[in-house]
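seq:
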Amino acid sequence: YDDYLYPIGLTKLTMRKQEEPVVKKIIELLRTQGFSDSMGGYIGWIMGELVDNSMTHLIHNGFPSDCYLLVQRYKFAHSRSECLIIGVADVGPGIHATLKINLKYKDLTDAQAFLTAFKPKVSSWSDGYNRGKGLTDILGIAIGNQSVLKVKSGNMEFQTDFRTQTTKFGLRTQATRFGRSSTSVNGTLFALVLIDKNFEVKNRASVSEFIDRMLVDWRLHNYE
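struct:
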């Protein structure tokens, strides 16, 4: 692995807290990228929460606590700007299957469960545990950074592109796609592409509204 292109090579984590030194390195990379100390720390903390959350669900559901993390760096030739791609993957049952362990969501279709899991305070754990914020905050980061997020679970794929671009056809914003993937994965795969240092914090209520629109659109086009 080239240290520049892969500042954090594929790293296997098998127990909680193992992610802490990796998260510290992610925060250093974000600072180099131009993010403020507070924002870089916030994003790094959320990534650590994502890994910790993944391991918690794996152990809770009787799966091996195997989680993988990778950070890649790309440079855009036309603008000379750089981006970081932070990837997190696990080998569990997948977002949709995990959520439906909670009897509150057991009757949802796989697609509904997949999208609903991004809403705040939605978790496979009962409400008393006050869990269900990690996925919401990941999506909030993607929206606030005008960046790209791809999430795969089972045979489903959710991809958002929040970049605002001016093309010869006009202004293009928020290209979002959710549906069946061309391949099926065991577990869950996240890829968060952080492109620039401009950042607007999006609250969880705005993320919840975004997911509600996605759910309506999915039902309208897929007759669910």
